[in-house]
Structure formats: structure tokens, C-alpha cells
Amino acid sequence: MLAEAQLERSPRYAARTFLQAGMYYDSAMVEWKIQNDHFILFRNYKKVAELARKSVKSSEQAINIARRTISETEDALGIRLEKSGEKIRNFDENFSRFPMDKEHRERFSRARLLYSESRQAYKNKNYALCMSRLDSVEAVTNELSTFYRDRLEEYFEDYPKWEAALEQSITFSRKNQTIVLVVDKMARELTVYKDGKILKEYPVELGANWVGDKMEQGDKSTPEGLYRILDKKQNGQTRYHKAFLLDYPNAEDKERFSLNKKNGVIHPDARIGNLIEIHGSGGKGIDWTDGCIALRDSDMEELYALCPVLTRVTIVGSTKSLNSLIFDI
Questions:
Q1: Computed from CA positions of residues 37, 43, 45, 51, in that sequence, does the dihedral angle turn out positive or negative?
Q2: Measured between alpha carbons, how far is 302 from 220 in angstroms, rounded to an integer?
Q3: Parallel, antiparallel, or unpaired: how do β-strands 179-184 and 189-194 relate?
Q4: Which fold has domain 157-316?
Q5: Strand order in 179-184's β-sheet?
Q6: Which of 220, 237, 288, 299 could form a disulfide bond with 202, CB atoms 3.0-4.6 angstroms apart?
Q7: How far is CA 239 from CA 136, 207, 230, in A?
Q8: Half-sphere exposure for 75 (CA within 13 Å, toward CB)
Q9: Cβ neighbours of 208 (radius 10 Å)
Q10: Burial tier of 271 (Cβ tally within 10 Å: 0-12, 13-18, 19+)
Q11: Alpha carbon separation from 125 to 81, 83, 120, 256, 282 (Å, rounded)
Q12: What is the pLDDT of residues 254-274, one digit of tens each?
């Protein structure tokens, strides 16, 4: 029975009861030896038998406790695995294209690897290793989820301004029976409005450091605000597949840039930058530009035919509030 209890992993999951069973067994063996040393007519194995029965009973109890504990552990770990997997998927979905520093990206990649190891450990019934790996996974995902959720909430403090800009653009399109373009950075989407109604929607790619407004030249952020198309560039006039040159920086951008310099937000030698475009050569699946908005070549062809010079372009962080987006992290 002790051997069976050992096989049922009682030493780990019913340690106290298994230890008691072992102590009864050891005591029975000691008493057995004592009786064997007596002359055969004076041997009495009653105490040996009683200790042996107690060892058997404790072994059976240990087996039952271990099986129950393992079942409960399996259920609990199964739930933890499911929740951790969901948290990783949600973080990946919500923040895979969020500008992350190298350390955070490496830690998240490591957490994904540990999660795979925890699943394999669970499959192999190595629950101690599974729990250890899950502890590490949960610590990292909880920390990074909190950090980037806070950054996101801070970013969305500008939502009222984005909402007003969107409404202004749609109203302008409707009143003037014209086309306006709206870029939703969060959704990676460019929407064409005609006469105040949605005509087309295109996926886009942004500056590699797209969260927040553009602060200075070289920050790889896509600016936010109300702009116009200054020039339409044919192939040969741009290194990309056709392009719209926007009027960045406009007066508002210049004023904010000067104020940021004055307040020490950016370096005194910083430059404001220019040459922000909507252009082709996109479709890479990542945010890769220096601040421009990239479309697939076929989409840029359609857009190029739709939009004349001076078409309004509104760039906002999001056209939807944070609460309306699904961020279960």
C-alpha cells in the first residue's frame, strides 16, 4: 500500500498522511524484529498486526487525499492556464503593435515561451513545474498589462479633441458635398467620407512610434490634427508608390512645437520635421514609417484618383472611446 501511495504521488499531495503511514510501517517492522528475537513460544505479533493495519489505512487515506488534491489541482491549473492564455492573447491583440521598448518586448516573448512550457508540464502531469511557470507568466503579463493600460488611458485623455475633430470633418464633408479623409491611428484605418457618409475604408500602417502626437523630427510618430493635401506625387516624384504631401507642420503644430521647446519638453536643438505623406508601398503588417501613413499600392491608386489637392485630412488617435473598445486585460 505504501508503494501504491508512492505511485499516486502521495509524498507530494498528501505528505502528512503518507508520512504517518510510513511511521506506522517502520514501527511495525521494529516491533516485528523485537518479537522475532523472542523465543518462538513467547512471540506476540498482535501489536505488529495493529501497526500494519494502521499503515495500510493511512496509505489508503493518503491515496484518496492525493487523488482528490491532484484532481483539484488539475482543475485549478486548467483554469489558470486558460486565463493566462486568454490574457496573453488579449495583450497580444491589443498591444502587439503598441510601441514597446526592447526590454518589455523581450519579457513578453519570454512569458509566451514559459506559457508553452507550463502547458507541456500540465500535459505531462508535472503540476509543480506548471505552477512555477504560470507564476512567472502571470507576474509578467499582469505588470505589462497594467503599464500599457495606463499608457493607453493617458493617451486617450485627448479623445474629446479627437471626437471634435472627427465631427468637424464629417460636418464639413456633408455641408460642402466633398471628400475628407479620416485616419484612425488606433484602428489603423483610413476612412474616406463623401458628402458626410463613409465611401471607402483602407487599412494603413503608421510611424513606428505612433502613440501620441508628433513632437519633433526623427521621433517616428505620426502627427495628429487637421491637415490638407498640398501636393499629389506621381511615381518618380516619390520613393513610394504615389503620395499625398500633407501641410505638416501647420500653424498649430508650429505653435505647440515652440511651446514644448520653451517648457523643456523637447531639446532646444530639436527640429519640427516635415514631409509627412500619405503614400503607397504599405501592406507590410507592421508600423514602419518615419511618421507617414502607408497604404497598399492598389489602395493608394484608388485614393489617388479620388482626392484632389487641398482635400482635408484629419488624423486622430481613435474615432472610438476607450470604453467602447474591448480591452479585457
A1: negative
A2: 26
A3: antiparallel
A4: L,D-transpeptidase catalytic domain-like (2.40.440)
A5: 197-203, 189-194, 179-184, 312-316, 225-233, 243-246, 277-279, 293-294
A6: 299
A7: 46, 17, 18
A8: 5
A9: 17
A10: exposed
A11: 13, 19, 9, 60, 47
A12: 999 999 888 888 898 889 888
pLDDT at site 326: 60
Strand, helix or coil for residue 322:
coil
H/E element holding 125? none
The answer to whether 292 and 133 are in contact (CB under 8 A) is no
Look up cell 507576474; give the residue.
139
For the chain, what is the largest distance between any 2 Cα atoms, rounded to a whole number of angstroms?
118
Q: Report residue 5 as a C-alpha cell.
A: 501511495
Query: One-letter amino acid identity for 154?
Result: E
Question: Domain map of the chain by residue range?
Answer: 1-82, 157-316
Q: Whole-model pTM?
A: 0.74
Cell numbers at 11, concatenated: 509524498
Instruction: Check if the beta carbon of residue 246 is closer than 8 Å to that of residue 281.
Output: no
From the CB of residue 312, how many other CB atoms can be counted at a distance below 10 Å?
20
